[in-house]
Structure formats: structure tokens, C-alpha cells
Amino acid sequence: MKLFSLCADEKHFYELSTLIREFFPLCKVVPERCDDVPGISLSGPDLPDVHGALWDEEGKEILSLSVTDPYEDFQGERWKNLAKICIFRLFVQGWGKKPLPWGILTGVRPSKIAYAYLEQGKAPYEIVEILKEHYLLREDKAALTAKVAFSERRLMASQDGKDVSIYVGIPFCPTRCSYCSFISSDARSFKKYSEDYLKALIREIRAGGEMLKGRNIRSFYMGGGTPTTLSAGQLELLLTECEKAFHLSSLLEVTVEAGRPDTITSEKLQVLKNAKVGRISINPQTMVQKTLDLIGRHHTTEQVEEAFDLARKIGGFTINMDLILGLQDEGMEEVRHTMEKVKELRPDNLTVHTLAVKRSSRMNELGDGARMLTEDPEKMADQIDEMILLSAKTASELGLYPYYMYRQKNMAGNFENVGYSLPGKEGLYNIEIMEERQSILAFGAGGVSKIYTPEKNLIERVPNMKGAPEYIARIDEMIRRKEEGLKIHA
Ligand code: SF4
After folding, report:
1. Cis ω on the peptide bond leading into residue 225 (within 30° of 0)?
2. Backbone torsions φ then ψ of 312, nearest 5 degrees
3. Exposed (0-12), middle (13-18) or buried (19+): which is 483, by Cβ within 10 Å?
């Protein structure tokens, strides 16, 4: 379906349209009734109940129903949630659509709702029931959400709203993956910009060290891009500057993404180890060579295995591995193969994503993403569902448990990304970025600092320029923006 009409309260139009697009990916939702276009109309928020009607492309009414609030809470979002329930039921009962596994939840952080109930003193089993009955989540998704919120709360118990974490971005990769939407530059731009980029980044880091004097820094995360695209010498220089500015060796956690196995060498790993980096990521996304070639990663599955071996020989690293389910041309057979390889490699953390079709990705530009999402969304959802179950089973066989989770828009099958970990090896930064209950200062191109004011429970975003050349040219402005943001929210 290309177009759908939604006649509803303007204030909530965007979120309600998002739910409609979860049933019909990439469909355009228009705010008025149009000829030859199916639609839904909803009564306004001035009435206690929500009444809705669904009509087909000929304008014929298929079903109308009312939703009454049987609950007391809904965390202050009563009308919006009732309207979502109404839309959900109209599609399921009127059009025979399959219920969405995430029910009426459309936000990126489903565990936020469960977290709020935990803070109200509800037990995890009560939260599972609330999520199923109020928010229409499927049993397994409700249980996952409650479990993740519970572990997030436990892991964040020592956090203070005044704490800060650090993000450093390296916007270079050997090649660009077809699903990537970051402005990550490839090997050629790396040659052209890397020296000037490092100079600008070090200036920003030094200034950041001054800004954060006296503040408690909890964790440090270097991502991108692929930080290990830098040479061993460049990495050493950068990490030495970070140690001077932020005292990495005394932080709770220091992570460097070494995502592309073809950028990893023993020299670079030794530099990371000397700098007290305790966590790295080695990300195959899939262990099927044909898919790796198709998505433009230009490395081999053997290189993934060699990188794991190398990191284990050098020792001292918690190793995370990222996978993506729903990649082009992959079915259960390919995912089964990948999971068997994962079991052999035994990562300490496993992050399982479902493919999200990003607007600025090559996959979207070529139209492959749209084709995948719209061809047969229900069949695709069933398949991804099966893949997710297999990945959860693999994680559990490896002794890993789910400790953080988020969702994105335009995800294959509208599912979720889940981070699994061995107990005691969890990545705190991953939770901090989801939780938004402390400041994160971001350095480098594409970084977005989040400055938190605990008294107001408010996050102010201060973005850096996205591309390396713009960042280099406007570095003074980046530093000034950060200083001002910190002063205003001191
Ligand atoms: S490795 Fe990551 S950042 Fe680099 S192109 Fe691929 S998806 Fe993008």
C-alpha cells in the first residue's frame, strides 16, 4: 500500500502514523480523507473513549469500534495509547492483519516503559502482564522488555546524574557497507583527511579535558566508522591524548570498536591493550562470504576468525560481536551457518540487530531496501522472527543474557536490536546511551553530545559537524558549542 488516510488529532499524528507504517512499511500516511485511498478516522482527545472507523479504497466502512480505558496509568499518555489500541484492533479485526509482536509500542526504547514501572515498585512479572494487556506486546517481547529493564536498573545502580561519559568518533572505514547511513569516509578520504582530522580531534579532546575537570567520568567509547582504520601510530597518539585528558586507566570501562576485521593487526591490538582498552568489537555481521561481498564489506570470514584468534592471544579484551539479521538474500540456512560459527568463536558479548533500511544508505538509494520491506512484509516478519529466536537460543547456549535493547525505524519485520552478554562483561556505555540519565560528551565528526540536567531530567543535544572536512574546517565552533552547552546546563 502506498497511501493511507488518517483523520486524527494533529498533536499525535506523527506517532499514530508510525504505528500504521509498522503494519504497512514505507506507506505514506496523509492527514485527510482522499478518493481511492483506504483510511481510519478517530474521535478527538476531548472524549473519554476513542472511537475509530476503518474504510477501504472504495470508501466502504469495514469496521468501527470503541476503546475504553480499563487501566489507571498509561504513564500520562492515555489518549495516544488508546488511539493506538484502536488502530491496532481495526487492522487486526477489520483487515485480518497479524498482530505486531511489539503491540502498540513504536518508540526506540521499549524498556523505558518497563523501567518506569520498576521505579514505581512493580515486580517484573507484574510488568510483563501490564505490557501484554495494556500495550498488546506478545508474551516473549514483554518478558524480554522486563528482563532488560531489570538488568539496566541493576547495572546503572551506581550511576550519578552528574557523571559524564566520553564518545570519540573516527569517521573512516575501508569501504562503505550497503546498509550504512553514517557519513563514514572510505580509504581514499582517509588518506586525504586523516592527519588533519586527528589534529582537529586532538584539539577538541584537549579542550574537553579542561571542560570536564572535576567531573566524574565513567566510561569511554571510541566508535565511528572504524577506529582501527587508523594506523597503530595514529591510534597510539590519539589514545595517549585521551589518557592525558580523561585518565582512561581509572575509568569503569574503555571500549574501542575494531569493527572491520581487515583493519585489525597485532600491533594495533597491542596499542589498545597498552592504553588499558578493555572492550573491543569485531563485527562480521554475517559469516556467509557471499553476503559479505554483496553488502560491500570486502573482508573474508577467515579474517574474522583470525582477528578473534589474535585478540585472544594478546588477551585482556572483552570481545563483542555484531550481527545483522535480514540481510539481502539471507534465509534461515545462512543464519544457521552464522550461528554455528558464532558458537565456535564464543564472543563475550553478542549484539544482534535486525536490518534497518536507512534513508541515506546505498541499499535505499538502489531501491533494494524498499523492495525487501514491502514485497511481502508478513512473510518477512515471520522469517525474521524465526531468526531472532535462533539468535536468542545461540546466545543462551553461550551463557549470554539480554541486557540492553533498542528499536529503530524501518527495521526488517519491525523487530529489535538486542545486546547479550556474559554476566559481568556488559558494556555500560551501551546502556548509558539508551538511558539518557547522564551526560555524554562526543568528540569528532558526527558526534552528538548529550548534556543532561538531572534536576529537570532533561537532555540537550549539541551536535558536531557530520563530515570530516566540515569538522576540520569548523573545529573552533565545535569546541565553543560544547563549552556553551556545558555552561548553560552546569
Ligand atoms: S563498518 Fe560500520 S560505519 Fe563503516 S561503513 Fe560499515 S556500517 Fe558504516
Report:
1. yes
2. -70, -35
3. middle
Instruction: Tell which residue, 384, 242, 257, has the closest CA to residue 326.
Output: 384
Quick check: CB of 180 below 6 Å from ligand 1? yes
Name residues of the chain where pLDDT drops below 50.
Answer: none
User: Strands, DSSP E only, in 68-203?
Assistant: 164-170
DSSP-H helix ranges across 263-365: 266-274, 289-294, 301-314, 332-345, 362-365
The model scores a pTM over 0.85: yes
Return the C-alpha cell found at 444. Answer: 569528532
Name residues whose C-beta falls within 8 Å of residue 346's C-beta, 6 or more positions apart in sequence: 398
Please state whether beta strands 164-170 and 61-67 pair in parallel, antiparallel, or not at all (unpaired): unpaired
State whether residue 250 is helix, strand or coil. Answer: helix
* CATH class as words, domain 1-97: alpha beta
Q: Tell how far the Cα of 475 is from the centroid of ligand 1, in angstroms.
A: 24
Q: Could you give the CA distance from residue 224 to residue 184 in angstroms, rounded to a whole number?
A: 7
Give the pLDDT of residue 361. Answer: 77
Helix (H) or strand (E) holding 376: none
Q: What is the pLDDT of residues 56-76, one digit of tens each?
A: 999 999 999 999 866 656 656
* Whole-number pLDDT of residue 7: 96
Residue 39: closest CA among 75, 67, 1 = 1
pLDDT tens, residue by residue, 115-160: 889 989 999 999 999 999 999 999 999 999 999 999 999 998 888 8
Q: Which residue among 172, 173, 190, 304 has the greatest number of ligand 1 atoms within 8 angstroms of its CB, and so is best to mutate? A: 173
CA distance 252 to 136: 38
So what's the pLDDT on residue 487? 83
Q: Which of helix, strand or coil describes residue 337?
A: helix
pLDDT in tens, 75-102: 568 888 999 999 999 999 999 999 999 9
Q: List, in sequence order, every residue forming a beta bridge with 285; answer none if it has no partner.
A: 323
Query: Which atom number of ligand 1 is nearest to the Cα of residue 179?
Result: 7
CATH class, 164-443 region: alpha beta
Q: Ligand 1 pocket check: which of 172, 181, 184, 297 to mutate, most ligand atoms within 8 Å of Cβ?
A: 184
CA distance 464 to 462: 7
